Amino acid sequence: MTSGTTDAPTPRARLTVLSGPSGVGKGTVVAEVRRLYPHVWVSVSCTTRKPRPGESDGVQYHFVSDAQFDELIATGQLLEYATFAGNRYGTPRKPVDQHLAAGRPTVLEIELQGARQIRDAMPEAQFVLLAPPSMAELRERLLGRRTEGPPDLEARLARAEIELAAADEFDEVIVNDDVEHAAGELVKLIESASAE
């Protein structure tokens, strides 16, 4: 029981950082989390890469030019940023701060390099690694996307090995062997984090 007035400010929500190798299904799991737990807010990253078929600006990513990305860095508007497969990705700071301050559970879906920057900036966040059932399965998922040629595919798999080796840097590991199950596990973690 707490003392004080009944008009106390809304407690700041806890940030959940979801990371995992390319092709592990982060976007698919997050889409299912949104369906299961509509109260969650998922940050939309900026990227300098070109949209893939079916992607829309402001939905999957904010697609920006290199010059625009440079400006976001120079003006301190990114919470974290990283380069991956020749493109840059970053998390806009202001909307994350606004949603957390309003008490809304917030999820960032980012790569390992970005997750490490967030750990330095916001060590109170919850860090979750989404892992594939096996490297063979990850290779099949990447092949199925048909978005990378052989050199890019091998580079992504090599990077995945490094990212999965960093599992001990995370608070929790969820194996994405079934999207609904993985999303359900993530929702439980988000709910428990926001209840603390």
Automatic annotation (TrEMBL):
Positions of ATP binding: 20-27
Subcellular location: Cytoplasm
Domain Guanylate kinase-like: 13-191
Record key words, sorted: ATP-binding, Cytoplasm, Kinase, Nucleotide-binding, Transferase
GO molecular-function term, one example from the UniProt record: GMP kinase activity
Chemical reaction(s) catalysed: GMP + ATP = GDP + ADP
Keyword Transferase in annotation: yes
EC number of the protein: 2.7.4.8
Job description of the protein: Essential for recycling GMP and indirectly, cGMP.
Family designation: Belongs to the guanylate kinase family.
Protein name: Guanylate kinase
Organism listed in the record: Jatrophihabitans telluris
Annotated gene: gmk
